[in-house]
Design brief:
It is an enzyme of class 3 (hydrolase). The N and C termini lie far apart (46 Å). The chain has one domain (1-124). 50% of the residues lie in helices and 0% in strands. The protein is mainly alpha-helical and 137 residues long. The longest helix has 36 residues, at 61-96.
C-alpha cells in the first residue's frame, strides 16, 4: 500500500507539472471561502480534499481496492481522529478552567468535510459561533 500510494502521488505530481492535471481551486479560492465562513462550499465539502486522492476510474480493479483502503485509512487517521483529539483538548481546557475565557484559532483543515472539529464539539453540547474576517471580537 505504501509503494502504491507513493507511485500514485508521484504520478499526480508529474501530471501537475506537465499541465495535464489541474487542481480545481486555487489557494486564493480557499482563503476567500474560509474568510467568508463559506465552509459548505464545494471546496470545503470533501473529506479528502486535504489528502491525496488515489481513487480513479482508470485503475485496474485490484488497484482500485488498494486505493479505497488507503483513502479510508487517510480519512480515518488524518482527518477524523485528528479532529477528535483536537476536540478533546478543547473540551478538557474548557472544563478544567470554567471561569476563563478562551479564543481558539484552527487551520481550515479542521473544518473540511464530515466529522469536523465543529461537529465533535457540538456533539459534546457546545455552541460554536463563526467570527467572520474583519469582525471585532
Amino acid at each position: 500500500q505504501v509503494v502504491f500510494a507513493l507511485n500514485q502521488t508521484l504520478l499526480q505530481q508529474e501530471s501537475l507539472r506537465a499541465g495535464s492535471f489541474q487542481i480545481p481551486y486555487t489557494t486564493e479560492d480557499l482563503i476567500k471561502h474560509y474568510n467568508c465562513g463559506d465552509l459548505s462550499s464545494i471546496i470545503f465539502n470533501h473529506d479528502t480534499s486535504q489528502v491525496p486522492n488515489f481513487i480513479n476510474a482508470t485503475l485496474p480493479a485490484h488497484e482500485r481496492i488498494t486505493a479505497q483502503e488507503i483513502d479510508s485509512y487517510f480519512r480515518q487517521e488524518l482527518i477524523y481522529k485528528r479532529n477528535e483529539r483536537m476536540g478533546r483538548r478543547v473540551k478538557d481546557l474548557l472544563e478544567e478552567y470554567p471561569d476563563k475565557s478562551f479564543f481558539f484559532a484552527f487551520g481550515a483543515g479542521h473544518f473540511m468535510g464530515n466529522n469536523t472539529l465543529i461537529d465533535v464539539l457540538r456533539k459534546e453540547g457546545y455552541e460554536i459561533e463563526h467570527t467572520p474576517a474583519g469582525q471585532a471580537i
